[in-house]
C-alpha cells in the first residue's frame, strides 16, 4: 500500500483485482463451454455418433471448470482466501484444481482431433482448433492469472497485466466509494409504494420519508391504479407478486395510459429469475430489484429514476412551449403535418376569400410618434384583430407594417368563406373605432376582399412562414389600395358569393393595375 492509500483504498483495489482475475478466467471458460456445445450440435447433425462420448466428457469437464471458477472466485469466497495467512498455499491449490479439468479437456480434444484427421472431415476441425487454443492459452497463463498476493504479473510481467492494473486504478479514481458520496436523496419526489405486505410498505415509506421524499402507499394493484388515477406521482415502487392484481398487470395498464406511461416504475420482488426481469424491462419497467434489496442500491435506483422523470418532464415542457410557439405562427393542421414528418407543405385551394387591410395615413403618423407608442397601438389593434379572426375561423396570414392579411377557407376549406371574410372586415372596422377611442386617434382603414383560387404553403427554413400566392392575392391587394377610407371594397366574384342585395353598394367599374377595368362593390353589412 502506497503512502497516499488508505486501508479502504487498498481493499477496493484488491477487490477490483479479484474481479479482473475472475473475468480473465471466466472469459476463456465460457468460450470453451460454447465451442464444446457447438461441436456437439455439429457432430449430431453430421451423424458422427462415434464422437459423442468424447464430446460429452469435454462438455462435463468444461462445465466443471466453469463451476469451479464461480464457486472459488465468487466475491465472498475469494475475499476469504485473500484474508488468510497462507494465500500462497490457497492459490497453489486453486491452480491445481483448475488444471485438472483443463488437462482433461485438452486430452480428450487432442484425441478427437486425431480421429478427425483419420476421418478426413474438415468441417469440425475449426471449432475444435478454437477450443484447444483457449485451453492452451489458459493453461499457459494460469499461474499469472491466479495470484492472491495483490501484485499481479509477478511471475511473468506482460504489457497486458500492466494495462489491467492501470485500468483498475483509473476506474477507482473515477468512482468514489458510496460512503464518500451524498447519502441523502439527490432529488426528492412523490413516490407511491405498492406492496401487499404491511411491514414492507411501512419500512419502505419510512426509509424514503427520511430521505426527503413524499410517500404514499397502496396495499395492492387495484388500489395502486386508483391512486395513480387520482394523484400525481414521480415514481412507483411496485411489488410483483400481489393477490388482487400482480405488479406486471399494473405496469401494463400504466403503459397503456397516456398520463401514466412516463411515470417510472421500479419492480421489487423476491422472484429474481432472469425471464421475469427481462419481461418486466421489456414491458417498460425502469428497473428491477430483487428482495431483500440493498438500501444504498435502492437509493441509487430511485434517484436515477427521479432524475430521468424530471428530465422527461422538462423535455415535455419544452416541447409544449415549442408547440405553442409554432401554433402562434402556423395553422394547427399544418403543425400536425410537420410533426408527422412532412417536409414540403404546399396545397392548392380552388375557392377562398382573401382580405387585405391598411391604415390610412399611418406612415405619416409613425414618422412623428415615439416607437414605444407606435408599437403599443399596433399591438393592441392587431391583438384584437387576432381574437376576432380566431372567433370567426379565418386564418391570419401576416402583418406588414400597418397592413393585416387574412384568408377564409384555408387550411380547412369552407363553403361560406366569402361570408366569413365579410364578417371579419366589418368586425375590424368596429375594432378600429374602439382603438381610436382608447388611444385618442382618428385612424381610418381601407379593406379589399377578392375570392378565387390560391396556393398556400410553408416557405423558409430559419424563420419559416405560412403564406399564400396567386392572382387572387394580387387582386385583393389592388382592391384595398383602390378603396376609400373606412370602406370595404369587394370584387364581383366575392359579391356573387355573398348573394348581392342591399348590403352591397355598386361602385361601378374601376381601373385595377394588371387587370384592367373591374366591377367592384362596397360592403355595408353581411346578408
Strands, helices and their partners?
Blueprint: H1 7-46, H2 52-72, H3 75-83, H4 87-119, H5 125-145, H6 159-174, E1 190-194, H7 198-210, E2 214-218, H8 221-230, E3 235-239, H9 247-256, E4 265-269, H10 274-282, E5 287-290, H11 295-329, H12 332-339, E6 346-360, H13 362-367, H14 371-392, E7 395-400, E8 403-408, H15 417-439, E9 444-459, E10 465-469, H16 471-481, E11 487-491, H17 492-498, E12 504-512, E13 516-523
Parallel strand pairs: 1-2, 1-3, 3-4, 4-5, 9-11
Antiparallel strand pairs: 6-8, 6-9, 7-8, 9-10, 11-13, 12-13
Helix pairs in contact: 1-2, 1-5, 1-6, 2-4, 4-5, 8-9, 14-15
Describe it.
This protein has 527 residues and is an alpha/beta fold. The protein has helices at residues 7-46, 52-72, 75-83, 87-119, 125-145, 159-174, 198-210, 221-230, 247-256, 274-282, 295-329, 332-339, 362-367, 371-392, 417-439, 471-481, 492-498; strands spanning 190-194, 214-218, 235-239, 265-269, 287-290, 346-360, 395-400, 403-408, 444-459, 465-469, 487-491, 504-512, 516-523. It folds into 3 domains: 7-179, no CATH class; 190-313, Response regulator (Rossmann fold); 332-523, Alpha-Beta Plaits (2-Layer Sandwich), CATH 3.30.70.1230. The strands form 2 sheets. Strands 6, 7, 8, 9, 10, 11, 12 and 13 form an 8-stranded mixed β-sheet that branches. Strands 2-1-3-4-5 form a 5-stranded parallel β-sheet, sandwiched between helices. A hairpin with a 2-residue loop joins β7 and β8 (403-408). α1 (7-46) packs antiparallel against α2. It is elongated and about 115 Å long. Residues 151-161 and 180-185 have low confidence and may be disordered.
Amino acid at each position: 500500500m502506497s503512502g497516499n492509500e488508505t486501508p479502504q483504498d487498498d481493499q477496493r483495489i484488491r477487490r477490483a483485482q479479484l474481479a479482473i482475475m475472475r473475468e480473465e478466467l471466466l472469459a476463456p471458460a465460457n468460450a470453451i463451454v460454447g465451442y464444446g456445445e457447438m461441436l456437439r450440435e455439429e457432430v449430431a447433425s453430421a451423424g458422427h455418433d462415434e464422437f459423442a462420448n468424447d464430446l460429452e466428457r469435454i462438455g462435463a469437464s468444461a462445465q466443471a471448470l466453469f463451476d469451479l471458477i464461480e464457486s472459488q472466485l465468487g466475491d465472498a469466497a475469494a475475499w476469504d482466501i485473500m484474508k488468510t495467512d497462507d494465500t500462497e498455499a490457497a492459490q497453489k491449490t486453486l491452480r491445481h484444481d483448475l488444471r485438472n479439468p483443463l488437462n482433461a479437456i485438452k486430452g480428450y480434444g487432442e484425441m478427437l482431433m486425431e480421429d478427425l484427421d483419420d476421418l478426413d472431415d474438415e468441417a469440425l476441425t475449426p471449432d475444435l482448433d478454437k477450443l484447444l487454443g483457449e485451453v492452451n492459452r489458459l493453461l499457459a497463463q494460469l499461474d499469472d492469472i491466479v495470484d492472491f498476493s495483490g501484485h499481479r504479473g509477478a511471475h511473468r510481467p506482460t504489457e497486458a497485466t500492466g494495462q489491467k492494473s492501470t485500468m483498475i486504478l483509473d476506474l477507482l479514481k473515477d468512482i468514489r466509494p458510496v460512503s464518500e458520496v451524498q447519502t441523502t436523496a439527490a432529488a426528492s419526489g412523490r413516490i407511491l409504494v405498492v406492496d401487499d405486505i404491511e411491514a414492507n410498505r411501512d419500512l419502505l415509506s419510512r426509509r424514503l420519508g427520511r430521505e426527503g421524499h413524499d410517500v404514499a402507499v397502496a396495499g395492492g394493484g387495484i388500489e395502486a391504479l386508483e391512486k395513480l388515477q387520482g394523484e400525481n406521482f414521480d415514481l412507483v415502487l411496485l411489488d410483483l407478486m400481489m393477490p388482487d392484481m400482480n405488479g406486471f398487470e399494473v405496469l401494463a395498464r400504466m403503459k397503456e395510459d397516456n398520463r401514466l406511461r412516463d411515470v417510472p416504475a421500479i419492480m421489487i420482488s423476491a422472484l429474481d429469475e432472469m425471464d421475469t426481469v427481462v419481461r418486466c424491462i421489456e414491458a417498460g419497467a425502469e428497473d428491477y430489484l430483487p428482495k431483500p434489496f440493498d438500501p444504498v442500491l435502492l437509493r441509487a435506483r430511485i434517484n436515477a429514476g427521479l432524475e430521468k422523470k424530471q428530465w422527461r418532464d422538462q423535455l415535455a415542457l419544452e416541447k409544449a412551449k415549442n408547440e405553442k410557439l409554432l401554433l402562434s405562427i402556423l395553422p394547427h393542421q399544418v403543425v400536425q403535418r410537420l410533426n408527422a414528418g412532412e417536409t414540403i407543405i404546399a396545397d392548392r385551394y380552388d375557392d377562398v376569400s382573401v382580405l387585405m387591410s391598411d391604415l390610412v395615413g399611418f406612415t405619416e403618423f409613425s414618422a412623428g410618434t415615439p416607437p414605444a407608442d407606435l408599437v403599443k397601438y399596433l399591438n393592441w389593434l392587431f391583438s384584437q384583430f387576432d381574437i376576432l379572426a380566431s372567433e370567426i375561423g379565418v386564418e391570419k396570414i401576416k402583418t406588414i407594417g400597418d397592413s393585416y392579411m387574412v384568408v377564409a377557407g384555408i387550411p380547412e376549406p369552407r363553403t361560406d368563406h366569402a361570408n366569413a371574410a365579410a364578417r371579419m372586415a366589418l368586425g375590424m372596422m368596429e375594432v378600429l373605432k374602439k382603438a381610436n377611442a382608447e388611444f385618442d386617434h382618428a385612424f381610418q382603414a381601407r379593406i379589399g376582399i377578392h375570392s378565387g383560387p390560391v396556393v398556400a404553403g410553408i416557405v423558409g427554413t430559419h424563420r419559416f412562414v405560412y403564406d399564400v400566392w396567386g392572382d387572387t392575392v394580387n387582386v385583393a391587394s389592388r382592391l384595398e389600395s383602390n378603396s376609400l377610407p373606412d370602406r370595404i371594397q369587394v370584387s364581383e366574384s366575392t359579391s356573387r358569393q355573398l348573394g348581392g342585395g342591399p348590403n352591397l353598394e355598386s361602385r361601378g367599374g374601376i381601373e385595377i393595375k394588371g387587370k384592367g377595368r373591374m366591377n367592384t362593390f362596397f360592403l355595408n353589412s353581411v346578408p
